[in-house]
From TrEMBL:
Protein name as catalogued: Phage major capsid protein
Provenance organism: Pseudomonas sp. MYb327
Residue ranges, compositional bias (Polar residues): 121-132
Main location: virion
One matching Pfam family: Phage_capsid
Lineage: Bacteria, Pseudomonadati, Pseudomonadota, Gammaproteobacteria, Pseudomonadales
């Protein structure tokens, strides 16, 4: 006990004489030590009791959830706490023994802490929560470049009308004598009508899943919006036309007649030149991705790549005209556009709407997510859109 005496007490012993003074100081130190031990043991009992109560509460909650909670693991930990409070080491500590002790709990083995289905026979399983990656996966998306190149015009009704020049013969010439009849040119124009199509689709999801996983709801809405734009690009390229449908660029295009037997890249260059000769400027080329690969991977007689290389691919440009690829473009056909003579008609931007008043949604706790847009296509001059057939000749 003398070793546990404070430094102050030691100094006082040096200055005092007589047995009474020494006994008083020793008694004082023992009383202080007893108070510290009592406080420590009381605090330890409180903490362990609180831990047991908390573990019991967790076990009861797990039973109320139908057994999904890790009851086995909680019970094992509860046994550890119970046996610790009943151990001789803990009793000795309460009586003033060392404040650090070891208790071996024989009724609970280390197997009690194994994951469900991962331990050896006899293990007490604990169902660990799986880590989940946010978002909606397996969602491939193609680049939709055409919408970036086409000019946009606002539309205000379900149809869009414009005058389109069909034929023009320029007979302008000099008036050789005064009073002489001047030359007459022929101008043939027709009223053209472009349909504004409604492109839409919907899906349903439960109110619970949208409330519990907001990120999933956002991803579903994003997927619906992308679906609209993908379908719009496909219709702008190859729409069939007709009631409520978009007539696409292929339907308006004037076929270019290839002169001679040319490689695909040369046939495209010939069409670019023909447009320029007619007064149009080719500003965009559209082709299927596979056709572009065939052109860009062409090699010369020595096996060297003509356009770029696999390490440094050639820019998507042919004959000085920017080029885009689209999976909606039929293989073997190439489009050339003078984009100043083409416009996408924008009647309604992509809109996402949610409703619980569709069908029996209200009583079944379902939500309908609807995405839609309204758009069309105007080709003011058919000669400004050309198509080129680059399909290899049979036997070529």
């Amino acid at each position: 006990m003398l070793n546990a005496m404070s430094n102050n007490a030691r100094r006082e012993l040096k200055t005092k004489s007589g047995g009474d003074q020494i006994e008083d100081l020793i008694l004082k130190e023992l009383q202080t030590r007893d108070v510290e031990i009592k406080n420590f043991s009381e605090n330890a009992v409180k903490e362990i009791t609180a831990l047991k109560d908390r573990l019991i509460d967790l076990e009861q909650k797990g039973q109320r959830r139908g057994g999904n909670a890790p009851a086995g693991g909680v019970d094992a930990v509860g046994k550890m706490a119970d046996e610790f409070t009943k151990s001789g080491q803990f009793a000795a500590m309460k009586s003033g023994g060392p404040t650090t002790g070891r208790v071996t709990v024989d009724s609970v083995s280390i197997k009690a802490l194994t994951n469900a289905g991962q331990g050896i026979t006899g293990s007490t399983s604990y169902s660990a929560t799986a880590q989940r990656q946010p978002g909606l996966h397996n969602d491939p998306r193609r680049d939709l470049s055409l919408l970036d190149y086409l000019p946009s015009l606002p539309a205000t009704t379900s149809t869009f009308e414009y005058m389109q020049l069909k034929d023009y013969v320029n007979n302008a010439t000099e008036q050789e004598e005064e009073g002489q009849q001047k030359a007459e040119s022929n101008i043939d124009a027709e009223l053209e009508t472009a349909n504004i199509a409604t492109i839409a689709h919907f899906t349903r999801a439960s109110k619970q899943v949208l409330d519990d996983t907001p990120a999933l709801g956002q991803q579903i809405g994003n997927l619906l919006d992308y679906g609209l734009l993908e379908k719009l690009e496909a219709r702008l390229i190859a729409g069939p036309g007709g009631k409520g449908k978009i007539k696409g660029l292929i339907g308006y295009a004037v076929p270019h007649v290839v002169v001679g037997t040319l490689l695909p890249v040369d046939a495209i260059g010939q069409a670019v030149t023909a447009m320029k000769t007619s007064g149009w400027q080719a500003r965009l080329i559209i082709m299927n991705p596979n056709d572009w690969f065939n052109i860009s991977s062409e090699r010369d007689a020595d096996g060297q790549y003509v356009l770029g290389s696999p390490r440094d691919p050639a820019p998507a440009v042919l004959w000085g005209v920017p080029l885009i690829t689209s999976g909606s473009m039929p293989a073997g056909t190439v489009l050339l556009l003078d984009t100043s003579q083409v416009a996408m008609l924008d009647r309604e931007q992509p809109t996402l709407m949610l409703s619980r008043e569709d069908g029996n949604n209200f009583t079944s706790n379902m939500v309908t997510l609807l995405a839609e847009l309204r758009a069309g296509l105007a080709v003011f001059s058919t000669g400004a859109v050309r198509s080129v057939d680059i399909t290899p000749a049979a036997g070529g």
